[in-house]
Amino acid sequence: MKKHLPWLLTGLFALWVLAALRPPRPAAEFDVVGFGRLPVLLNGRVQPWDSVARNSLLQIRARQAFAEVTRPDAPAWNPGAKYTRMSALEWLLELMTRPEQADRRKVFRIDHPELRTLLGLPPDGPFYHAQSELRPHFEEIEKQARQAGALDPAQRNTFHKAVFKLFQNLVLYQRLKSTLQPEGTTNFLAELKAYQAALEPGLTAVTQHEAGEPHDTEALGTLVRFARRFEALSQTALPLIVPPIHPETNRDAWANVGASLMETLVTRQIHPAVLAYAEMAGAYAAGQPEAFNQALARHRQWLTAKGLDREIAKGRWEFLYNQWRPFYLGTTLYVVAFLLGCFSWLSATRAGVWNRSGYGLLVLGLAVHTAGILFRMALEGRPPVTNLYSSAVFVGWGAVALGVILERIHRDSVGLVMAATVGCITLIIAHNLALGGDTMEMMRAVLDSNFWLSTHVITITLGYSATFAAGFLAIMYVLRGLFTRGLTAPSRAALNRMVYGILCFATLFSFVGTVLGGIWADQSWGRFWGWDPKENGALIIVLWNALILHARWGGLVGERGLMNLAIFGNVVTSFSWFGVNMLGVGLHSYGFMDAAFFWLMLFVASQLVLIGLGSLPLRYWASLRADPPARPAPAPAA
Amino acid sequence: MLLEPLIRLFSSLRLTVVCLALAVVLVFVGTLAQVKLGLYEVQARYFQSFFVYWQLPGTAVRIPVFPGGYLLGGVLLINLFVAYFSRLGRQRFHPGLLLIHFGLAALLLGQLWTDLAQRESVMRLAEGETKSYSESQRRSELAVIDPSDPNVDRVVAIPESHLRPGTTISHPQLPFAIRVHQFWANSAPVRGDTNATPQVTQGTGLQARFVPRPPVTTTDERNVPTAIIELLDAQAPGTSLGIWLVSDWLLEPQAVEVRGRKHLLALRLARYYKPFSLTLLEARHDKYPGTEIPRNFSSRVRVRQPATGEDREVLIYMNNPLRYGGFTFYQYQMAADEAVRMRGQKPTSTLQVVQNPGWLMPYLACTLVSAGLLWQFTGHLLAFLRERRPRPTGRTLPARPAPAEPVLSR
Questions:
Q1: Does domain B119-130+273-355 have CATH number 3.40.366.10?
Q2: What ipTM was assigned to the predicted interfaces of this complex?
Q3: Judged by CB atoms within 8 Å, which residues 36-75 of B form the interface with A?
Q4: pTM reported for the whole predicted model
């Protein structure tokens, strides 16, 4: 049993990872999954409805799904029964087709205390509110948001940001409502048929009117009413859901429903996609699954007939990616691997079993993490790091990969625990960065260069990974050395070598990455180096790593000194990674207590405490008391 | 005898570590200071200087409080050379270390060369427009233009740094000397009661009033200077031709007539003339469908050089500059989207023009350093792998003596 436990555990978790790939079972007879896979265009890129729904709900509610307490008296042994749950897609479909019902769902997360008092909400939770609750305050919210919007972003305080965000979310919510049909429409399909019927007589009347001839004023008036209504719709509708009618000439010519209906004035034929969506909307609102599914199938056939296979595939694969959530699975695997690694240190007799089990899960986690990154790359057609979110994912990946290598060599759970810690923390950071909305947004013109993204950005990010890896190994040295007796002389020597080796790696990658960044800057702006904050951040990492290596070669620091310097490397790297982005914010009067800034400061403080612990005299160290580390003789170096 | 301790000091690793630590602090403080001072000011004060000074509040006394970029870079360079040459012949030859450190030296010296020799300017072109000069983004000049030759203008340009109040400037090609009464590095127009700038007796300054403003520091604003100058007849010393106001706010140059010859006066962004010209044929600003996110900026330009008869078209776009005649032209700013066209304006494109004779140095330097780092650390890795012996069957911590560490140089 002991021998097989690691394999068994890893196998079980692997099954769990694979099971997440199965398509979800539909909650009703409506083919919501099929709908979720349909491609639309938003943020300049083709994506499935599922991404639109998840990213919108993430922005509004900070969650990818909806849950509401509807039965507070549910039995204690079954707490799940308390909630009514909806997937993001179901929520969006309801919002688009039955807005009066959706308006009563508590989806808006409002947690800023001053904003809550402004809106007359109780200071202590629950923090979710329905649009109908907020309606009486719209005027006030808009007034406050306009005041906040007039300020320079750097001058906005947390209240300004919160009210501005709420206003934006309300606008987003409102625009989503008019995606399929004008809000409050009961039978849009019938309206479209009336429009089609009014087109010919109306357009004839327009021509006659322009020529000064007698014409049918009623037909003209009807058409003008329609046109006004659809013009307004074209201004509010957000995602472009109507595919190009001639994809062979212009594949990018997607339109929203309103704009497409305005084009109908020229083409004289309502776009089949508009009709299909109108039918789906009507059927969903009326609770007729068959009609819904038929219209859906018709639309899918139309897409295939038009040769929009690439878009269909994109929708399908991105839907699978959304549902699989590889980074969420990875986070869980890392947490378990971390615990197993810690057990292996505490357990006297079964250390090997725990270690191998943890290692198996770590490797599985790395595999899922890698698959997630590759999946994203394939969806985006980009190198792995394109924005802050993906940099967090990749920093974690680099550190885990290093940890797996170390663990494979040393088998002492050190690489395991380091990798699981860094992997887990960076994926949690990534999760929080994703709250901003779509993480696969298009690249601005200046960044639109796969060559530099795949060389400079990847190297510098691996430099971050390595510096963090060295820093967390050093933390383990300090914690285990101080508080346990487990840090024996050989394991100290091994840690020392690991930290040193990884620092060499970090120096190489951060130097090369920084210089490649300089070359990119030279290629695109004509200056190799401009002392701008991001460049300076990268330079500080290089200088700091060089400093550690020189101090070690010169014998200026011993084992513990090396560890303390490496821990400070965490501070330096986190400043370079996030701090410089907050400069505009962090040092101005009010933005000071921004959530991210708070966490950064907390992290820096924790690292300083660890350095303080690492500097305690030897008599406080449980492991080192008996066997103090020797100070290495200075090695002359060029 | 004195040399020995000096060599020991300048070749020590302790000095290297101290300099690196100071450099980390300098870069960090220099980054934070940008919030208040702006990028250019910080570059000058912190990085392109020997000392960072602190001005005693309320006085003009400046105390050096921290080593600046030039000093730290210089000491590190000396440290590097002394350490290397003092050990020459006494130690084993390390090709990796040699490459790293001489690559770094090349990088530092290359940056110094760039700091001293690089000149940045911009060329703003509307569609169809042709220019044979670029303009500075921050520096101004007082230009006196003699338009009498129909083919070429003769220009005498006085840099703004010469326009100190109280000085008199003369030039053999000018029929007058210029006495500077006032110079404001930054200024703004105002609607006053009289609507005239005091002192002025001639020109546009009689109808418009300007006041000084504190200089701006951020990278997206610029100073607009104004000066009040008096023209003194060069052939009849002591005869004043009037007091004029010149300002970069004024769009048109002002005409001065001296003995029947017309001259134009303009305080404008400093211009750098080139022996060739660029014509903007087409400016494009594409966006992703349904968004305002820019997808591409590009300028199709025509390059013409009369001396060689060269005449060709080039497309300049993001990450793809034009290198021509010792200059590099980068796509910099653009006003060419639909909004511009709908307002009936001509699309314009701004090219950044950089002249940097040392631009290849970083490429050379980082190739050296990267090769050296790879060499050195691959060496460590191989040594480490060689020393790993087949491990005993036990999976937990093997109780074996720590292997000797690969020290960088032994």
A1: no
A2: 0.84
A3: 39, 42-43, 47
A4: 0.85
